[in-house]
Description:
The complex is a heterodimer of chains A (241) and B (91).
Chain A: H1 26-31, E1 35-39, E2 42-47, H2 51-60, E3 62-65, E4 71-75, H3 79-85, E5 95-98, E6 104-109, E7 112-116, H4 123-131, E8 140-142, H5 144-147, E9 148-154, H6 158-162, E10 180-185, E11 188-194, E12 202-208, H7 212-223, E13 229-230, H8 233-240
Helix pairs in contact in A: 2-8
Chain B: E1 3-6, E2 10-13, E3 17-22, H1 33-41, E4 49-56, E5 61-68, E6 73-79, H2 80-87
Amino acid sequence: xxxxxxxxxxxxxxxxxxxxxxxxxxxxxxxxxxxxxxxxxxxxxxxxxxxxxxxxxxxxxxxxxxxxxxxxxxxxxxxxxxxxxxxxxxxxxxxxxxxxxxxxxxxxxxxxxxxxxxxxxxxxxxxxxxxxxxxxxxxxxxxxxxxxxxxxxxxxxxxxxxxxxxxxxxxxxxxxxxxxxxxxxxxxxxxxxxxxxxxxxxxxxxxxxxxxxxxxxxxxxxxxxxxxxxxxxxxxxxxxx
Amino acid sequence: xxxxxxxxxxxxxxxxxxxxxxxxxxxxxxxxxxxxxxxxxxxxxxxxxxxxxxxxxxxxxxxxxxxxxxxxxxxxxxxxxxxxxxxxxxx
Lengths: 241, 91
């Protein structure tokens, strides 16, 4: 593929090994036929050769690897005071609140916050990273960017599929948009965040990156019953509109 | 499946939790070896209502639960901070 033949958003390099950073799932996504683009120094599966079909699948049932999207965490008894002093609006524990720049502030407990970006514009995450210092630390950073992986499960059948893997009732009328459940999914510790894309229900799963291939396999197995598909990040962007 | 009402996460399957043993007071620093052995190794094994430390594994969250060991019924739970404020320092 030549650079001239690519759309402005598409990375001309087709081998994920060419990128500085890769998700733990890059081999799995490569086997599935991913087309890559650069984001946040990562090679990201943009699509698998059928953007329109993937967008339709994402509204029905699909999974996508979002590990490349920026994230950060802060923890400690002084977290709330420090983070509010930085202009972040805090939700109640086990709820998420979207900030002005689009970042989702996910409060995991009274003293722990997880920040997630839905695209590569992570101004709040970058600013907090530059502001935090050891000298006046009242909370400490949690290495979410490297230690955690992030997947999305999207579509109308997503709650039914998640019921096969998770004991918490994630149906739409019981688990509202931006609700958080820190629970067991396929016998792994997983943070489940409801993060709808447009009109489509969706759940983001944040968990130990070392087990990403295992959980991906569990999700692929579970969604087969509902004819789910693996999709690229372009399909999720299309759903968000 | 038995359900534990976690103070942070709400009702959850008991498989998400680990029991940390009965709430006990630390012995004084100058106590004899027998008191330390009793504190560290020996369980009271009470048949009745006990207060125990419990741990929610996905959130690394410790809290206290009151449980009747005869019926395995969970009667009440507290966040650790609230329990210690109400009943003083436990282990």
